[in-house]
Specification:
disordered N terminus; Rossmann fold; 45% helix; alpha/beta; 13 helices; seven-stranded mixed β-sheet
Protein backbone atom coordinates (compact mmCIF):
# COMPACT_ATOMS: atom_id res chain seq x y z
CA UNK A 1 0.00 0.00 0.00
CA UNK A 2 1.42 3.44 -0.88
CA UNK A 3 2.72 5.37 2.11
CA UNK A 4 0.37 8.32 1.56
CA UNK A 5 -2.69 6.05 1.60
CA UNK A 6 -1.48 4.29 4.74
CA UNK A 7 -0.99 7.66 6.44
CA UNK A 8 -4.49 8.83 5.53
CA UNK A 9 -6.07 5.69 6.95
CA UNK A 10 -4.01 5.94 10.14
CA UNK A 11 -4.94 9.61 10.61
CA UNK A 12 -8.62 8.80 10.12
CA UNK A 13 -8.43 6.05 12.69
CA UNK A 14 -6.51 8.18 15.24
CA UNK A 15 -8.98 11.02 14.82
CA UNK A 16 -11.79 8.65 15.71
CA UNK A 17 -10.28 7.46 18.98
CA UNK A 18 -7.71 5.10 20.49
CA UNK A 19 -6.70 2.26 18.20
CA UNK A 20 -8.21 -1.10 18.96
CA UNK A 21 -7.86 -4.19 16.79
CA UNK A 22 -11.46 -4.71 15.65
CA UNK A 23 -10.81 -7.69 13.36
CA UNK A 24 -13.07 -10.68 13.95
CA UNK A 25 -11.27 -13.83 15.03
CA UNK A 26 -9.90 -16.11 12.29
CA UNK A 27 -11.13 -13.71 9.60
CA UNK A 28 -8.68 -14.53 6.82
CA UNK A 29 -9.05 -18.27 7.38
CA UNK A 30 -12.84 -17.87 7.25
CA UNK A 31 -12.52 -15.90 3.99
CA UNK A 32 -10.17 -18.53 2.55
CA UNK A 33 -12.61 -21.32 3.40
CA UNK A 34 -15.53 -19.32 2.01
CA UNK A 35 -13.66 -18.73 -1.24
CA UNK A 36 -13.04 -22.48 -1.64
CA UNK A 37 -16.82 -22.94 -1.61
CA UNK A 38 -17.46 -19.86 -3.75
CA UNK A 39 -15.01 -20.34 -6.60
CA UNK A 40 -16.86 -23.28 -8.15
CA UNK A 41 -20.15 -21.33 -8.35
CA UNK A 42 -20.82 -19.85 -11.82
CA UNK A 43 -20.92 -16.08 -11.93
CA UNK A 44 -19.13 -12.86 -12.71
CA UNK A 45 -17.76 -11.93 -9.28
CA UNK A 46 -13.95 -11.97 -9.25
CA UNK A 47 -11.94 -13.44 -6.39
CA UNK A 48 -10.74 -10.08 -5.03
CA UNK A 49 -14.33 -8.81 -5.14
CA UNK A 50 -15.68 -11.90 -3.38
CA UNK A 51 -13.08 -11.66 -0.64
CA UNK A 52 -13.90 -7.97 -0.19
CA UNK A 53 -17.59 -8.81 0.26
CA UNK A 54 -16.67 -11.37 2.89
CA UNK A 55 -14.56 -8.84 4.78
CA UNK A 56 -17.36 -6.29 4.65
CA UNK A 57 -19.88 -8.79 6.01
CA UNK A 58 -17.60 -9.67 8.90
CA UNK A 59 -16.21 -6.24 9.83
CA UNK A 60 -19.25 -3.98 9.79
CA UNK A 61 -20.18 -2.53 13.20
CA UNK A 62 -23.84 -2.06 12.31
CA UNK A 63 -26.62 -4.35 13.46
CA UNK A 64 -29.21 -5.77 11.12
CA UNK A 65 -29.58 -7.99 8.07
CA UNK A 66 -27.37 -8.66 5.07
CA UNK A 67 -29.48 -8.04 1.96
CA UNK A 68 -28.38 -9.20 -1.49
CA UNK A 69 -30.25 -7.90 -4.54
CA UNK A 70 -29.31 -10.03 -7.52
CA UNK A 71 -28.05 -13.51 -6.72
CA UNK A 72 -27.80 -15.10 -10.20
CA UNK A 73 -26.45 -18.63 -9.53
CA UNK A 74 -25.28 -17.89 -6.00
CA UNK A 75 -21.63 -16.87 -6.22
CA UNK A 76 -21.85 -13.86 -3.91
CA UNK A 77 -24.57 -15.57 -1.88
CA UNK A 78 -22.25 -18.41 -0.93
CA UNK A 79 -19.42 -16.06 0.08
CA UNK A 80 -21.68 -13.85 2.18
CA UNK A 81 -23.51 -16.75 3.76
CA UNK A 82 -20.38 -18.70 4.69
CA UNK A 83 -19.05 -15.65 6.52
CA UNK A 84 -22.39 -14.74 8.09
CA UNK A 85 -22.96 -18.30 9.33
CA UNK A 86 -19.51 -18.52 10.91
CA UNK A 87 -19.92 -15.27 12.84
CA UNK A 88 -23.59 -15.76 13.73
CA UNK A 89 -24.84 -12.78 11.73
CA UNK A 90 -28.19 -14.27 10.84
CA UNK A 91 -29.50 -15.37 7.46
CA UNK A 92 -28.53 -13.61 4.24
CA UNK A 93 -31.61 -12.29 2.45
CA UNK A 94 -31.40 -13.16 -1.25
CA UNK A 95 -33.70 -11.22 -3.62
CA UNK A 96 -33.81 -12.25 -7.27
CA UNK A 97 -36.59 -13.26 -9.69
CA UNK A 98 -34.00 -15.57 -11.31
CA UNK A 99 -34.53 -14.39 -14.86
CA UNK A 100 -31.53 -13.50 -17.00
CA UNK A 101 -32.77 -10.28 -18.54
CA UNK A 102 -32.20 -8.03 -15.53
CA UNK A 103 -28.42 -8.09 -15.57
CA UNK A 104 -27.68 -9.29 -19.09
CA UNK A 105 -30.21 -7.37 -21.17
CA UNK A 106 -31.52 -10.56 -22.75
CA UNK A 107 -35.08 -10.59 -24.02
CA UNK A 108 -37.59 -11.74 -21.37
CA UNK A 109 -38.01 -15.50 -21.50
CA UNK A 110 -35.17 -16.04 -23.98
CA UNK A 111 -32.92 -17.74 -21.42
CA UNK A 112 -33.79 -20.34 -18.77
CA UNK A 113 -34.31 -19.46 -15.14
CA UNK A 114 -31.26 -19.50 -12.88
CA UNK A 115 -33.28 -20.66 -9.87
CA UNK A 116 -32.42 -24.38 -9.97
CA UNK A 117 -28.72 -23.61 -10.38
CA UNK A 118 -28.95 -21.16 -7.49
CA UNK A 119 -30.50 -23.77 -5.20
CA UNK A 120 -27.91 -26.32 -6.28
CA UNK A 121 -25.10 -23.90 -5.39
CA UNK A 122 -26.53 -23.41 -1.91
CA UNK A 123 -26.87 -27.17 -1.39
CA UNK A 124 -23.34 -27.94 -2.52
CA UNK A 125 -21.96 -25.22 -0.23
CA UNK A 126 -24.18 -26.49 2.61
CA UNK A 127 -25.64 -23.06 3.36
CA UNK A 128 -29.34 -23.49 2.45
CA UNK A 129 -30.51 -23.04 6.02
CA UNK A 130 -28.67 -19.71 6.28
CA UNK A 131 -30.34 -18.06 3.27
CA UNK A 132 -33.76 -16.40 3.22
CA UNK A 133 -34.85 -16.63 -0.41
CA UNK A 134 -37.18 -14.13 -2.08
CA UNK A 135 -37.80 -15.18 -5.67
CA UNK A 136 -39.14 -11.78 -6.62
CA UNK A 137 -38.28 -8.33 -7.89
CA UNK A 138 -36.66 -6.11 -5.30
CA UNK A 139 -39.45 -3.53 -5.70
CA UNK A 140 -42.01 -6.14 -4.63
CA UNK A 141 -39.99 -7.10 -1.55
CA UNK A 142 -39.30 -3.46 -0.67
CA UNK A 143 -43.02 -2.67 -0.40
CA UNK A 144 -43.34 -4.66 2.82
CA UNK A 145 -39.75 -4.54 4.08
CA UNK A 146 -39.40 -3.43 7.72
CA UNK A 147 -36.05 -4.80 8.92
CA UNK A 148 -32.83 -2.91 9.75
CA UNK A 149 -29.99 -3.51 7.28
CA UNK A 150 -26.28 -3.75 8.04
CA UNK A 151 -25.08 -4.53 4.52
CA UNK A 152 -26.91 -3.82 1.25
CA UNK A 153 -25.30 -5.58 -1.74
CA UNK A 154 -26.79 -4.45 -5.06
CA UNK A 155 -26.07 -6.58 -8.11
CA UNK A 156 -29.40 -6.77 -9.90
CA UNK A 157 -30.86 -4.67 -12.70
CA UNK A 158 -27.96 -2.58 -14.05
CA UNK A 159 -30.11 0.00 -15.82
CA UNK A 160 -30.35 3.36 -14.07
CA UNK A 161 -34.03 2.86 -13.25
CA UNK A 162 -33.31 -0.60 -11.85
CA UNK A 163 -30.29 0.34 -9.73
CA UNK A 164 -32.05 3.46 -8.46
CA UNK A 165 -35.11 1.44 -7.44
CA UNK A 166 -32.92 -1.10 -5.64
CA UNK A 167 -31.18 1.65 -3.69
CA UNK A 168 -34.28 3.72 -2.93
CA UNK A 169 -36.28 0.70 -1.84
CA UNK A 170 -33.86 -0.41 0.87
CA UNK A 171 -31.65 2.57 1.77
CA UNK A 172 -34.20 3.90 4.31
CA UNK A 173 -33.48 0.81 6.43
CA UNK A 174 -29.70 1.24 6.61
CA UNK A 175 -28.43 1.41 10.16
CA UNK A 176 -25.61 3.77 11.20
CA UNK A 177 -22.38 1.99 10.27
CA UNK A 178 -24.00 -0.07 7.50
CA UNK A 179 -22.47 -0.32 4.03
CA UNK A 180 -23.96 -0.13 0.55
CA UNK A 181 -22.00 -1.83 -2.25
CA UNK A 182 -22.87 -1.93 -5.96
CA UNK A 183 -21.35 -4.39 -8.41
CA UNK A 184 -20.30 -3.54 -11.98
CA UNK A 185 -19.97 0.14 -11.19
CA UNK A 186 -16.91 0.34 -13.43
CA UNK A 187 -18.14 -1.98 -16.18
CA UNK A 188 -19.91 0.57 -18.45
CA UNK A 189 -23.42 -0.18 -17.19
CA UNK A 190 -25.47 3.00 -16.76
CA UNK A 191 -27.10 2.30 -13.40
CA UNK A 192 -24.62 1.39 -10.63
CA UNK A 193 -22.09 4.18 -11.28
CA UNK A 194 -24.76 6.87 -11.53
CA UNK A 195 -26.46 5.80 -8.30
CA UNK A 196 -23.08 5.68 -6.56
CA UNK A 197 -22.10 9.18 -7.66
CA UNK A 198 -25.46 10.92 -7.30
CA UNK A 199 -27.02 9.19 -4.30
CA UNK A 200 -23.98 8.21 -2.26
CA UNK A 201 -20.86 10.24 -3.03
CA UNK A 202 -22.87 13.48 -3.24
CA UNK A 203 -24.91 12.65 -0.16
CA UNK A 204 -24.15 14.13 3.26
CA UNK A 205 -25.18 10.85 4.91
CA UNK A 206 -22.29 8.64 3.76
CA UNK A 207 -18.71 8.49 5.02
CA UNK A 208 -15.79 6.33 3.81
CA UNK A 209 -16.16 5.32 0.16
CA UNK A 210 -14.19 3.71 -2.62
CA UNK A 211 -13.90 1.07 -5.29
CA UNK A 212 -12.53 -2.46 -5.21
CA UNK A 213 -12.17 -3.59 -8.80
CA UNK A 214 -15.74 -2.96 -10.05
CA UNK A 215 -17.44 -2.78 -6.65
CA UNK A 216 -18.37 0.71 -5.46
CA UNK A 217 -18.94 0.94 -1.71
CA UNK A 218 -19.62 3.44 1.04
CA UNK A 219 -20.53 3.42 4.71
CA UNK A 220 -23.69 5.06 6.00
CA UNK A 221 -22.32 7.52 8.62
CA UNK A 222 -24.88 10.31 9.12
CA UNK A 223 -23.33 11.45 12.41
CA UNK A 224 -19.82 12.16 11.10
CA UNK A 225 -20.05 12.02 7.30
CA UNK A 226 -18.79 15.61 7.04
CA UNK A 227 -15.26 14.49 7.92
CA UNK A 228 -15.12 12.38 4.77
CA UNK A 229 -16.46 15.06 2.41
CA UNK A 230 -13.11 15.96 0.76
CA UNK A 231 -12.28 12.33 0.00
CA UNK A 232 -15.75 11.71 -1.41
CA UNK A 233 -15.65 14.90 -3.49
CA UNK A 234 -12.38 13.83 -5.10
CA UNK A 235 -13.77 10.38 -5.83
CA UNK A 236 -16.99 11.86 -7.21
CA UNK A 237 -15.01 14.17 -9.49
CA UNK A 238 -13.19 11.23 -11.05
CA UNK A 239 -16.14 8.84 -11.17
CA UNK A 240 -18.60 11.39 -12.58
CA UNK A 241 -16.50 11.68 -15.75
CA UNK A 242 -17.64 8.15 -16.59
CA UNK A 243 -21.35 9.00 -16.46
CA UNK A 244 -21.86 10.35 -20.00
CA UNK A 245 -20.10 7.31 -21.46
CA UNK A 246 -21.79 4.81 -19.16
CA UNK A 247 -25.18 6.08 -20.27
CA UNK A 248 -24.28 4.83 -23.77
CA UNK A 249 -23.42 1.34 -22.50
CA UNK A 250 -23.18 -1.47 -22.11
CA UNK A 251 -20.99 -2.52 -24.99
CA UNK A 252 -19.01 0.63 -25.72
CA UNK A 253 -16.93 0.51 -28.89
CA UNK A 254 -14.22 2.45 -30.65
CA UNK A 255 -13.13 5.79 -29.25
CA UNK A 256 -15.85 5.75 -26.59
CA UNK A 257 -14.48 2.49 -25.19
CA UNK A 258 -10.90 3.78 -25.22
CA UNK A 259 -11.93 7.00 -23.46
CA UNK A 260 -13.94 5.06 -20.88
CA UNK A 261 -10.96 2.83 -20.06
CA UNK A 262 -8.67 5.85 -19.77
CA UNK A 263 -11.00 7.63 -17.35
CA UNK A 264 -11.55 4.44 -15.38
CA UNK A 265 -7.79 3.95 -15.00
CA UNK A 266 -7.66 7.20 -13.01
CA UNK A 267 -10.01 5.85 -10.34
CA UNK A 268 -8.27 4.03 -7.46
CA UNK A 269 -9.75 0.55 -7.12
CA UNK A 270 -7.11 -1.67 -5.55
CA UNK A 271 -8.05 -4.34 -2.96
CA UNK A 272 -8.35 -3.30 0.69
CA UNK A 273 -6.87 -5.46 3.41
CA UNK A 274 -8.98 -6.54 6.35
CA UNK A 275 -7.03 -4.32 8.76
CA UNK A 276 -7.40 -1.26 6.51
CA UNK A 277 -11.11 -1.91 6.12
CA UNK A 278 -11.70 -2.43 9.82
CA UNK A 279 -9.83 0.80 10.58
CA UNK A 280 -12.20 2.73 8.33
CA UNK A 281 -15.46 1.03 9.32
CA UNK A 282 -15.58 2.14 12.95
Amino acid sequence: MPQARATVILLLRVAQGPYLDPLPQNLEQVIDDAWVATQSVPGFLLENEARFLGRLAACLPAKGTIVEIGSFKGRSTVMLTKVAAYYGLGPVVSIDPHTHELSTGAAPGSLPSTYDDFLSSLRIANVEEHVEIHRALSADVARTWQHPIRFLWIDGDHTYAGAKADFDGFAPFLQPGAVVALHDSLNDFPGPIRVFVEDILRSKQFGPAGFVHSIAWSQFRPADARGFAPQKAELASRASRLLPLAQQGPGLRGLAKIRYKLLRSRIPRQPISASELAALLT
